[in-house]
Design a protein that fits this description.
The protein is of the alpha+beta class. It folds into 2 domains: 169 residues, no CATH class; 151 residues, 2-Layer Sandwich (Nucleotidyltransferase, domain 5). Helix content is 46%, strand content 16%. It is built from 13 helices and 14 strands. The strands form 4 sheets. The protein has a 5-stranded mixed sheet with strand order 10-9-8-11-12. The longest helix has 34 residues. The chain is globular. The protein binds zinc ion. The site of zinc ion has 8 residues, from loops.
Length: 411
C-alpha cells in the first residue's frame, strides 16, 4: 500500500461535519470495545453484528457510511489481536490492554461514501454526514490511478489543519526506472556521536537542526506547562486562553520539527540505497533502543524506525537488498581478525591487541554488520552452497580450500 496525501481547506460548516464523522467513528470504536470487555469471548462476527445494532439504534451512527463504521470495528480488532499476541509471546511488562480513545483524529472510509470529481481535483463525501466537496491541494496527481486502486480514504486532523489520505494499491516499482547497479555494499552502525558510521569509513553527522529543534520543542513544552493550572483541572474548569495558545504553538512546532526530520531521514535513506546495492543494519527494535540509553539520547526511537522504514521502502522500490542483522557483539568484535575486543561505551577507538587493527569504534562495528548482512542473505539459486551440495561443490573447489579456510577464520 502506498499513501498519497492532500491538504484540504474545509469551510467552518464542513469542519463541523468532519469532526462529527470523526466523533462518530470514535463512538463506534469505544462502544464496540466496551461490548468486547463486557462479553468475554465474543469474536469478530459478534463485534460486527453489534456494530449493525448500533447503526439501528443511533441515527448519527447510521449517518456515517457503513464501511467507515466497519473500519472503526477493525481498529478495535487490531488492538485486541495485538494485545492477545503480546500475551501469547509473553513479552515483559505491559501487554497493551485495549483502551478507550478520547482524541481520535481521523475517520477512515473504504471504497464507498465518497467519489472523485471528473478532474480528480476534488473529493465529494456522499454519506449523511454532509461533509460535501473538498478541493485536494497538493502536487500529486490522481489521474494516473485506476479508481479501483484506491482502497481507503482517510480524513485526518492535524494541528495545522485537515488532510485527505488515499491508500492506494500500487507497487512502487511500477513507477520507477531501475538504477544502474553501484557495485557496492555497505553496513551501517547507528551511533552516539553521529547518526551512523558506515563500513566504507564515512560518518554521517546528526544535523544541527536536529538538536536545535529539540531545544525549541523543549522550550515550547515548558511554556505550555507553565500555563497549565492543575487547580482548574481539579475544579473541572477549562484551562486559560493562554494555555491553549501555548498548546497550539507547541503542537505546530512539533509538526514542523517532525516534518523536517522525516524529510532529512528520507534523503539519507534514499542516498544510501542509490549508492549501494546492499545495505546492512542492526535489527534494533524500539525496546532495544529505549533500553540502551546512549542510543536513546542520540536519536529517538521514532527516528530510527522511520529511517529503517524509508530504507526498506527505497530498497524495495529500486530493487536493492536491505538486510537487518541481529545486534550481537558488533562493536566488540575485531572486523579484521574476528577476535573479541571488549570495550566500554567511552572507548571511541577500536584497537585490536591480536592483529593490531585500529579503526573508529563505530566503523569497525559497521564492517561487522556488513559481513553479517552478506552472510545472512546467503546463496540462492539451484547450485546453492548448502548441506546437500557441499561435497559436490567441495570437490570442484578443492584447489581453493586453503584460501576458503583463511576466510572462514574472519567470519
Ligand atoms: Zn584483530
Amino acid at each position: 500500500m502506498f499513501v498519497l496525501e492532500f491538504k484540504v481547506k474545509p469551510k467552518p460548516i464542513q469542519i463541523q461535519a468532519i469532526d462529527e464523522a470523526i466523533r462518530t467513528s470514535q463512538f463506534v470504536r469505544n462502544k464496540v470495545l466496551r461490548y468486547w470487555m463486557d462479553n468475554r469471548g465474543v469474536g469478530k462476527t459478534e463485534l460486527f453484528r453489534y456494530n449493525t445494532r448500533l447503526r439501528k439504534e443511533f441515527k448519527f451512527v447510521d449517518d456515517l457510511n457503513s464501511h467507515a463504521c466497519q473500519t472503526a470495528v477493525e481498529r478495535v480488532l487490531r488492538a485486541i489481536n495485538k494485545f492477545f499476541d503480546n500475551c501469547k509471546r509473553q513479552i515483559p511488562g505491559k501487554k497493551g490492554y485495549p483502551k478507550f480513545k478520547k482524541n481520535t483524529r481521523s475517520v477512515e472510509y473504504k471504497v464507498s461514501g465518497w467519489k472523485l470529481s471528473e478532474s480528480r481535483k476534488h473529493i465529494i463525501f456522499t454519506d449523511q454526514k454532509n461533509i460535501g466537496r473538498l478541493k485536494l491541494i497538493g502536487t500529486r496527481d490522481l489521474l494516473f490511478l485506476q479508481i479501483e486502486q484506491i482502497k481507503r480514504v482517510r480524513i485526518l486532523k492535524r494541528s495545522d489543519g485537515y488532510y485527505i489520505q488515499f491508500s492506494v494499491k500500487l507497487d512502487p516499482r511500477d513507477t520507477v526506472k531501475p538504477l544502474i547497479p553501484s557495485q557496492k555494499a555497505v553496513g551501517i552502525d547507528v551511533g552516539l556521536k553521529h547518526f551512523y558510521a558506515d563500513s566504507q569509513g564515512n560518518l554521517e553527522p546528526i544535523p544541527q537542526f536536529y538538536r536545535k529543534g529539540e531545544k525549541q520543542l523543549n522550550r515550547a513544552n515548558r511554556q505550555k506547562s507553565h500555563k497549565y493550572d492543575s487547580n482548574k483541572k481539579k475544579a473541572k474548569l477549562p484551562q486559560s486562553k493562554n494555555y491553549h495558545k501555548a498548546r497550539l504553538r507547541y503542537a505546530l512546532k512539533h509538526l514542523r520539527v517532525s516534518r523536517q526530520r522525516e524529510e532529512w531521514l528520507k534523503t539519507v535513506a534514499l542516498r544510501l540505497i542509490q549508492s549501494n546495492d546492499l545495505v546492512a543494519y542492526e535489527d534494533l527494535n524500539v525496546s532495544d533502543i529505549v533500553r540502551n540509553r546512549h542510543l536513546a539520547k542520540s536519536i529517538s526511537d521514532a527516528a530510527w524506525s522511520t529511517f529503517r522504514r524509508w530504507l526498506e521502502y527505497f530498497g524495495y522500490k529500486y530493487g536493492k537488498v536491505t538486510v537487518a542483522v541481529p545486534a550481537h557483539y558488533t562493536s566488540q568484535k575485531c572486523s579484521s581478525c574476528g577476535q573479541k575486543v571488549p570495550k566500554t561505551l567511552s572507548t571511541r577507538t577500536h584497537i585490536c591487541f591480536s592483529c593490531g587493527y585500529v579503526e573508529d569504534r563505530d566503523i569497525n562495528a559497521a564492517i561487522n554488520i556488513l559481513r553479517l548482512g552478506l552472510s545472512t542473505v546467503g546463496q540462492t539459486g539451484s547450485q546453492a552452497w548448502g548441506e546437500g551440495t557441499a561435497t559436490l561443490v567441495g570437490a570442484i573447489l578443492s584447489g581453493q580450500v586453503s584460501s576458503a579456510n583463511q576466510e572462514s577464520s574472519f567470519l
